Predict the structure.
Amino acid sequence: MSILQKIAETKKEEVARLKSERGLLSLREGAKRQKAPMDFLGALQRPGKLSLIAELKKASPSKGVLRADFDLEPLAKSYSQAGAQALSVLTDVQYFQGQLSYLKLAKEASGLPVLRKDFIIDEHQVYEAREAGADAILLIAALLDDAKLSALQQMAWDLSMTVLVEVHDEPEMDRALKAGTKLLGINNRNLNDFSVTLQTTFHLLKKVPADLPVVSESGIKNRADSLNLLDKGVIALLVGETFMTAPDVEKAVKDLMP
């Protein structure tokens, strides 16, 4: 069983608990009580400039704890001060040591729009994300069939949220395009074996419609990588590990971004 499959099984158990504890009606009402979401996609769209979705991630399944002194609010503020356009917030508890409550904390500390970075497989999680303050959600194509991908995406759009649809190969990208994604994420990390190569982005970009904004995710280490991705037409980077393992997060952001 791959890491992704293992996480998916855990998510099914979590969703079952969520359904029994809250139910769809309660979550929907909670979502609709929130202030309107910030424009996550709009924040990334800066013609001629590369934007940054800076990630708050304490740990990962492949590397373990990335930052022992993980203090969410100062880190979120550092990202904002360094010039990030948006934040990605890990909310998975078991594998990434995240928390749902991190969304509002990060948003308040930074003033930036926030993406719920998790393994979303069910409608309950979409409403839960909006109730918790998310302005955007991640949908991983590898976890969802066509019908579910389209349904969850439309549900998020109906809540005025941005949806980042993540792919890592051509068949997944074709499915994302068929679903009408408005923001495509190309993950350079293979979610089955966690190997990483920027060639994934470079290869898939050749087949992306010119008007579709693309985010490159994972494996971005330095300014040369950033400049290369900008030159190829990427509008934004999603970077976590490089920053989370740096002694000075603000400096790391400024060193990486053109």
Notes: The mean pLDDT is 96. The chain has twelve helices and ten strands. The two ends are 39 Å apart (CA to CA). The CA atoms of residues 120 and 139 lie 6 Å apart.
